[in-house]
């Protein structure tokens, strides 16, 4: 298994910028795995995507992977660093899956991460620090992303929290909880 890093935090905190810095520091060829899809009718979304693209070095390869994340990770070459931005968008892209399908997708992703020889940096949003969403789909998103982040963090070499313009290395400052009981 390659080096696996998880970066989490609220919106506009600098998660992606930290991930980009760590990817550059890896010294490996970087493959940027974008889970978002462009919507030509949403100019603001297009501008956000362009902002991310402008920060990336020209020699980085970018893959658009809204759903098939496990397959993309499994195909990675050992001498690369994959930067997956973001898990929240990936979860949102799969919200239509029923619970059994989602659990299978999650299991497949976690199993794949443990088998890949490439380095991987995952960016994930923190969603559960506010009020409980008023709608079932919002609660499903929050719960699925929270569970994914918790389970992925158990197999990461480092977990960072970016908030308030600061980076905290949770792997140094804290200790992981035991695996949840099924």
Automatic annotation (TrEMBL):
<dbReference type="InterPro" id="IPR003203">
    <property type="entry name" value="CobU/CobP"/>
</dbReference>
<feature type="active site" description="GMP-histidine intermediate">
    <location>
        <position position="52"/>
    </location>
</feature>
<keyword id="KW-0418">Kinase</keyword>
<dbReference type="GO" id="GO:0005525">
    <property type="term" value="F:GTP binding"/>
</dbReference>
<comment type="pathway">
    <text>Cofactor biosynthesis; adenosylcobalamin biosynthesis; adenosylcobalamin from cob(II)yrinate a,c-diamide: step 5/7.</text>
</comment>
<keyword id="KW-0547">Nucleotide-binding</keyword>
<dbReference type="GO" id="GO:0008820">
    <property type="term" value="F:cobinamide phosphate guanylyltransferase activity"/>
</dbReference>
<dbReference type="GO" id="GO:0043752">
    <property type="term" value="F:adenosylcobinamide kinase activity"/>
</dbReference>
<comment type="pathway">
    <text>Cofactor biosynthesis; adenosylcobalamin biosynthesis; adenosylcobalamin from cob(II)yrinate a,c-diamide: step 6/7.</text>
</comment>
<keyword id="KW-0548">Nucleotidyltransferase</keyword>
<comment type="similarity">
    <text>Belongs to the CobU/CobP family.</text>
</comment>
<feature type="binding site">
    <location>
        <begin position="9"/>
        <end position="16"/>
    </location>
    <ligand>
        <name>GTP</name>
    </ligand>
</feature>
<dbReference type="InterPro" id="IPR027417">
    <property type="entry name" value="P-loop_NTPase"/>
</dbReference>
<dbReference type="GO" id="GO:0005524">
    <property type="term" value="F:ATP binding"/>
</dbReference>
<dbReference type="GO" id="GO:0009236">
    <property type="term" value="P:cobalamin biosynthetic process"/>
</dbReference>
<keyword id="KW-0342">GTP-binding</keyword>
<keyword id="KW-0169">Cobalamin biosynthesis</keyword>
<keyword id="KW-0067">ATP-binding</keyword>
<feature type="binding site">
    <location>
        <position position="85"/>
    </location>
    <ligand>
        <name>GTP</name>
    </ligand>
</feature>
<protein>
    <recommendedName>
        <fullName>Adenosylcobinamide kinase</fullName>
        <ecNumber>2.7.1.156</ecNumber>
        <ecNumber>2.7.7.62</ecNumber>
    </recommendedName>
</protein>
<keyword id="KW-0808">Transferase</keyword>
<feature type="binding site">
    <location>
        <begin position="34"/>
        <end position="36"/>
    </location>
    <ligand>
        <name>GTP</name>
    </ligand>
</feature>
<dbReference type="Pfam" id="PF02283">
    <property type="entry name" value="CobU"/>
</dbReference>
<comment type="function">
    <text>Catalyzes ATP-dependent phosphorylation of adenosylcobinamide and addition of GMP to adenosylcobinamide phosphate.</text>
</comment>
């Amino acid at each position: 298994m390659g080096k696996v890093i998880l970066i989490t935090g609220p919106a506009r905190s600098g998660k992606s910028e930290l991930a980009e810095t760590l990817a550059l520091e890896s010294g490996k060829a970087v493959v940027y795995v974008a889970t978002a899809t462009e919507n030509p009718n949403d100019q603001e979304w297009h501008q956000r995507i362009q902002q991310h693209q402008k920060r990336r070095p020209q020699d980085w390869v970018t893959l658009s992977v809204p759903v098939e994340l496990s397959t993309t990770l499994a195909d990675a070459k050992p001498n690369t660093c994959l930067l997956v931005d973001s898990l929240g968008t990936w979860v949102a892209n799969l919200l239509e899956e029923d619970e059994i399908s989602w659990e299978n997708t999650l299991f497949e992703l976690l199993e794949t991460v443990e088998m890949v020889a490439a380095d991987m940096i995952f960016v994930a949003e923190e969603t559960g620090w506010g009020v409980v969403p008023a709608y079932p789909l919002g609660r499903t998103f929050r719960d699925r992303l929270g569970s994914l982040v918790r389970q992925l963090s158990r197999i990461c070499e480092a977990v960072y929290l970016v908030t308030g313009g600061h980076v905290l290395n949770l792997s140094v400052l804290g200790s992981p909880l035991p695996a949840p009981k099924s």
